Amino acid sequence: MLNKIIANILPYMPKKLIWVFSKRYIAGETIEDGLLASKLLNEKGIEVTIDILGEFIRSIDEAEQNKNEYLEVIERFTNENVVGNFSLKPTSFGLLIDKEVCYNYIREIVAFAAEKDSFVRIDMEDSQCVDLEIELFRKLRKEFPKNVGLVVQAYMRRTKSDLEGLNDLNSESAPLSFRLCKGIYVEPERIAFKGYEEVRANYLADLKYMFENNMYAGIATHDKYLVDEAIKLIREMNIPKSMYEFQMLYGVTPELRQSIVDEGHRMRVYVPYGKQWFGYSTRRLKENPKMAQHIIKALFIRG
Predict the structure, then answer these.
(1) Sequence-ordered list of residues with C-beta below 8 angstroms from that of 195, at least 6 positions apart, any chain
(2) Which of 53, 56, 37, 177 is nearest to 126 (CA)?
(3) Which member of 6, 33, 159, 216 lies 3.0 to 4.6 Å from 292 by CB, making a disulfide possible if both were Cys?
(4) Which of 51, 123, 162, 206 is catalytic?
(5) Is the pLDDT of residue 260 over 70?
(6) What pTM does this model have?
(7) CA dihedral (25, 27, 28, 31) positive or negative
(8) Active-site residue 33, yes or no?
(9) Does residue 262 carry a catalytic annotation?
(10) d(CA 31, CA 73)
(11) HSE on the CB side for 155, CA within 13 Å?
């Protein structure tokens, strides 16, 4: 209870205070920060997906600015041979302002990534965005079948039917690629599972469906139970290493991450950076209030 109270209060505190918490989970504010963090992970045999922080923009001018920043990032990271790809949130490009402008900007990004033989993952956002983001993915997938993927959220009751509905786009030469995560947005019970165990069960059911239908699975979780159960499925179903990877957030559960790497599984870390780090940090805090105690300790304990 105390952790939850602290977690709810901290977003209203000075940014310097929140940065004490944030610096563990965010590479920094600049492209150089993102490059450095990514190269250090690459040295450990870990791939990355780069995310420039920022979402739910207020003007379409911001969308164009975000597009240009992503084009620069793709240019820099591919030229410097970082082993990884890119993630983006459609609301950063005006999804809820003008979906056609959003599509055109994201298409330009995906096209440029395709030129560089790279890949862009479309992040899934809250329930008001799901249909729009699936529609966006469908259009891009038809034009760039090997260069674009999507995120799906296991706590959404609709996810299994969404996977079934997209299966017509799947092919042996270009398997559909999904990142499967639990989901963090606050949604009503009528559309989202609320129980801890039922979210876990749905996660594994969605993952099994992906494996059964030869879809590429990004197994995005820090839940050791889900990691262990996913590995069991991989072994039981004889899933080749070319058809899955594990994914984790930057700075989270590094010991579990390393154990997965040590077992020979492919690992990708989501590396966020950018000046709009505050919203990302406070969401992480609300998702896991136990982190609040680490902030308080950091304020008073040195070394």
Answers:
(1) none
(2) 56
(3) 6
(4) 123
(5) yes
(6) 0.90
(7) negative
(8) no
(9) no
(10) 7
(11) 20
